[in-house]
Write a structure and sequence with these properties.
Blueprint lengths: L25 H10 L4 E4 L5 E4 L4 H20 L4 E4 L5 E2 L5 E2 L3 E5 H5 L3 H5 L8 E5 L6 H13 L4 E6 L4 E5 L6 E4 L3 E3 L8 E3 L1 H4 L1
Length: about 200
């Protein structure tokens, strides 16, 4: 049994077969995340640990474009909310710990959190999320994650698939909308005035 008590950490390499599922408690997950800040760790609502490998060059430059565009909009509209990059973890209401590639939370929801809650994994679901598919990502798993965001309170989500130049748009109580090779995406009334230019995402 793995103890929830903090221990002195050592760097080791661990390879898990695809068929092996590693279950961790909330406390164990938080300890792992603190000891492995260079890794993007996630945890499903069932307690399954997910280790996301570092992105390659193509995904890295696409992520930077997305984060830069969202950040520029955020800085011009700070009164509306807070924007976050892919290193930010969120504790969803269903118990999952997720780290979207980019996200945004309304100002009043962010301000309702205590200073301590803002320092760790944020205990809420973002209002807006973006997931960018890399070549190694399972599309089915990403689609399930997007549905999970909406189920937990997200108002708008974009699943961007550069391999097929497709975007899936997720909204509450609506069918998923599929766009083929769009040039821009609108933040609609969730992020008023925000437009994501996809030209650098498709190249």
């Amino acid at each position: 049994m793995i103890s929830d008590q903090p221990i002195t950490s050592q760097t080791v390499s661990l390879e898990l077969p695809g068929s092996l599922v590693l279950q961790v408690t909330q406390g164990q997950f938080e300890s792992l995340a603190q000891a492995n800040r260079d890794l993007r760790l996630e945890r499903t609502a069932q307690g399954e640990l997910i280790v996301n490998p570092p992105t390659g060059g193509e995904s890295g430059k696409r992520n930077l474009s997305i984060s830069t565009q969202l950040g520029n909009w955020f800085e011009a509209h700070e009164h509306l909310g807070e924007a976050f990059d892919s290193s930010t973890g969120f504790k969803l209401p269903n118990g999952a710990d997720r780290s979207p590639d980019a996200s945004w939370v309304k100002r009043e929801r962010w301000e309702s959190l205590t200073p301590q809650q803002r320092k760790g994994f944020v205990p809420l679901c973002p209002d807006f999320v973006i997931e960018l598919r890399s070549e190694s990502d399972s599309l089915v798993k990403l689609q399930a994650k997007m549905s999970e965001y909406i189920y937990n309170g997200a108002k708008l989500g974009w699943l961007i698939n550069p391999q097929k130049r497709q975007v899936e748009i997720y909204r509450p109580n609506r069918e998923v909308e599929m766009l083929e090779n769009p040039t821009h995406l609108s933040g609609e009334d969730i992020l008023p005035g925000f437009t994501l230019n996809l030209s650098r995402i498709w190249t």
